[in-house]
Amino acid sequence: MKLVGIAKMAAESPSLQAKNRVEYFDMPARTFLARCYSERVPFRWMINPYRGCEFGCKYCYARYAHEFMELRDPLDFERRIFIKHFDTDAFLKELAKLPLGERIAIGTATDPYQPAERRYGITRSILEAFARTAGYRLGITTKSQLVARDAELLKEVSRRHFVTISMTVTTIDRELAREIEPMAPRPDLRLSAVRALSRHGVRATVFCAPILPLLTDTDASLDAVAKAARAAGARGFGGNVVFLKPCAWQVFLPFLEQNYPLLVRRYRERFDRSAYLRGDYPQRIAERVARIRRRYGFEERFYEQQEPELWPRDPQLTLF
Bridge partners of 141? Predict the structure, then answer.
């Protein structure tokens, strides 16, 4: 089969470094901003500094992204990490084309603070570019305490843009977290990062996602995450129910069979025919999350913020 486009680029990407379970590849990037057309999310633009993610979360929906590169084994997503070239000047030109106030999400199909970031620093380079601009609404999603390394930089970016760091914490149970997110930092380390960001005046929230039926969906489990989030200084709390596309189901089902065999039948009944849960269950979980949010006094609006100090009034002043 003749490879074209991103698949050809991936096949031609030279290896940068090989570790025990992960290999890094050098990949050119034509653009860094990608348009999002989904009505399920509150943003129109995405930035993914890397392709692939080392954390190996059993439920990860983003494994499909490697299929565009003709890498069909769902485990390739966590074993073959592509490091995108970053050009600050080219990126600033991309940003300059966006209207004032656009929402941009960083880390929709990869964790921007996965271990690769320590070595390659692409996410930090992106933030340094945003520190030279103003006028956007930025959201960063991560499971890593490494985000706290950039607290001072994020504080500066927050003077110019609306910024929200969304820390994913599915459970505070260390053993369960290690099972479902085997290479991700411990929940307490993630919460310590929320605490550090909050001390620097950077808006941090905690998102319990995905919520896993019969594993993390009880009131007690969700309440424990919310209580820890409040103690860490998080401004917001939310969560949504898992969906399992085929690429994720291929990994999650064997995980269940090995670790939670008694749950296999019930998951099959719900996910064999559809990636999304139907019926009243999602609504009941949404109501449970809303009650817990109110219980701890979290903001009702997840993205509620005051206007940044250097927010531009004139679209022509977006670039500094």
Answer: 166
258-276: b (≥16 Cβ within 10 Å) or e? eeeeeeeeebeebbeeeee
Whole-model pTM? 0.93
Three-state secondary-structure class, residue 92: helix
Q: What are phi and psi of 296, to 5 degrees?
A: -105, 10
Residue 246: other Cβ atoms inside 10 A: 12
Q: Helix, strand or coil for residue 262?
A: helix
Strand order in the sheet with 15-18: 15-18, 23-27, 80-84, 50-51
- Rounded Cα distance, 42 and 46, in Å: 11
Which tens digits make up the pLDDT trace of 192-222?
A: 999 999 999 999 999 999 999 999 999 999 9
CATH number for the domain running over 5-312? 3.80.30.30
* Length of the chain, in residues: 320
104 strand-pairing partners = 45, 138
Q: Which residues pair with 238 in a beta bridge?
A: 207
Rounded to whole angstroms, how far apart are CA atoms 289 and 91? 37
DSSP assignment, residue 45? E
**DSSP track, 278-301:** -TTHHHHHHHHHHHHHHHTT--SS
Q: Are 84 and 29 in contact (CB under 8 A)?
A: yes
**Residue bearing tokens 């290690």:** 178
* Cis peptide upstream of residue 210 (ω within 30 degrees of 0): yes
Instruction: Give per-residue pLDDT as tens, 20-49.
Output: 889 999 999 888 998 888 777 777 899 999
Helix or strand (DSSP H, E) at 123: helix 122-130
Helix (H), strand (E) at residue 248 = helix 246-259
Q: What is the DSSP letter of 133?
A: B
End-to-end alpha carbon distance in the chain: 47
pLDDT of residue 300: 65
